Amino acid sequence: MKRTYFRIRNPFASFRKSMLRRMLAVSLFASIFPVIFVGFSSYWFSSSAIRKEVDQANARVLSHASYSIDTALQRVRSNALQMLLGSFFNGNLTEQKWANYAGFYSNLFQNLSSLQNSNAEISRIVMYIAEDDYLVSPDQGGHKVAGEEDRRQLQGLLASREAMYWSNDTFRFMGDAPGGQASVTLVCQVPFQAAEPIGLLLLQLNPSFLQENMTRFSAYPGELSFILNEEGREVVSSAGQLAPQGLYEQAGEHPGQAFSFPWEGRDYLVTALHSSSDGWTYLDMVPLQELNAKSRGIAVITVAIVLVFLLLGAAATAWSTKRLYRPIEHLVSLVRGNREEELLADEIGYVQSRWAELNQATTRLQTQLNRQLPAIREAFALQWLQGHYAHYTSEQLPVLFERYAVPYQHMHAVFALAYDQSPDGSSRFRESDKELIVFTMKNIAQDVLAQQGASGMVVNLLNDQIAVWLWEDTEDPAAWFAQVQELAAGLRTVLADYLKLPVTAGLGDGPGAPGGLPRLFAQAAMAIRSRFWAGTGQVIRSGDGDAGEAKSYPYPFEIEAGLEQALRNGDAAEAELQLEQFAAYAQETLRETERIRTAYYQLLTAALRVVFLLNLSLKESADGTGDETDLYVQIKNVHSIQELNDWFRERLIRPIARKVQQRHHQEYERTFETAIAYIEANHHIDLSLDQVAERCGLSPPYFSKLFKRIVGVSFIEYLTAYRIDRAKTLLQTTGLSVAEVAESVGYQPKNFIRVFKKQTGQTPGQFRETGSA
Hints:
CATH topology of the largest domain: Beta-Lactamase
Number of helices: 28
Structural class: alpha+beta
Oligomer: single chain
Distance between the termini: 154 Å
Strand order of the largest sheet: 3-2-1-6-5-4
């Protein structure tokens, strides 16, 4: 009887399961302390619900305020940009100012006043003209920059890389903002996006505009609102005070979530909203004390209700505990399997630990595979394109392709991409950034493939080039290859625009099966190498050039002779025309890179022969490039026909022609000094063009042409003007008669009166009486 009693009183004596014991302990704990537990839970729940509702309401308020402010800022920015892109600001402001100084500043005042009148959010507009060191404002007029500190601040804004941005800095030269508050200023370089701006446009927003939008929907006593910029500095606050220390940092740690923040002995519920338009952070702080006041009454009612239900639930706790444990016991048995180790934790803990071990092992293996797979696939692709798997059989290749996740039965195509250094140095990369350029090209190509939905991979060829390997399951290879060509052309354009470098794409003669891909790649590589004579910055097909046997072509001596003659005459335009004809002949006829280089070496020798025969200094003719050996070294480092032509123009043709022209000009000046002296000494006789030309040793037509080009007027016009000037002097300073004056300057009296009146508008007698000049 006693043994039966103990069997009934202790029904769980045979179960030595830690989870079961804990379930029983929890049930007992729930029956002893239900009121305390449920009271705290209900209070926490109600507080959380209220906080969540308040946070959602504040988020909507902040979103509305952010939208209102962002819309206004965008409108101000758009209006300013519209003004800067108008006809007045889009012209040459410096030329406008010096052409009409008063009109320039009048137009400037009109534009600034119109901008301020059309934007109520703007409290002040200031225009800074750097050349005049002048500040212009539609409401305060214009004045010089007062202090050196303001001048340095303005120069710093001019040197900024950003052409238009919002700033929270203090600008003393703009004066205090209304109400003495901090404000926001839009800084614009003028002209907009010019390489060298000549001035600044500063638009200061009215602080009350921002503050009104932040405080419009405040609903709780002691509620605070702030706007902080990207650096955590205060833009505006609802109470006109500084934001608490650490608030901005904590808002960054809880993006999109409400959080508690203690400040000045009070706890606040903080709601934050980040604006992607201007980068500002909008914050609303509500005292938790105001929120908790609403939840205390709810907590009292909840405790009373829970007491009743807990009494009913306590009776079923012990019975339900055993039934609830059965699925857990079954789960532990499945997870343990045949392992006999002792449970070191409860059943759930054991299941979690075993599950975590399996997940960690799976994740670790998957991560290692994911990290290595792209590099492994790229190494395989590089070796395949270069023909290193040519010994594989037709049975082995499908298995190999499957291993690297490349479809073997599809049609395949490949094209190569190479860059060249920019001849004008406008690229954003230096010549030493080769690895960075290739890395950039590869990443951009991968992004373009993903955007186009193309199947394939990008391979670094380890020679400053990349290859794009594509495949497609298609029944129309020709149409698909046309798409591949379009993709190559589009990708080449994207890379060239981003790198600011000439980029060339090379393709084979069409798509094919995987086994023919190394041949297609070799054709693409050959097309890339042919860019020297075909030209960079384009798409080159392997079949674009001549496929026949190389022929021997004669050197264009007649073009070389024309170039030499043009250099001897100092005619740069004709020399450049001959150079273009030489380049066209080389590109269309010679075609091979080494043959083209040899032809240009011979052309360089011809140009140097002109330098020697004309006894010119090599440094003067080649812009200080050094001696003859340096020129041959320089031409060897040029990489395209276009660069060769540019090099010849800048290093030889134009300097030589300029030197020859200078020498001719000096000779012409000496000749015409003789002509002018002869005219002045013999103007009183019947002087003709032939006489003066013979005096200068030139033919009359050539002398007449050169005289007008150098003096600016014809020989007759110059002689007539000189004679009339001498006649004026004689009429004013002597008592000679008109007939005597006419004979003194080489005219018959009647003819003299007619010419004098035509030149001066008066007869000689009228001129003498009035004394007009």
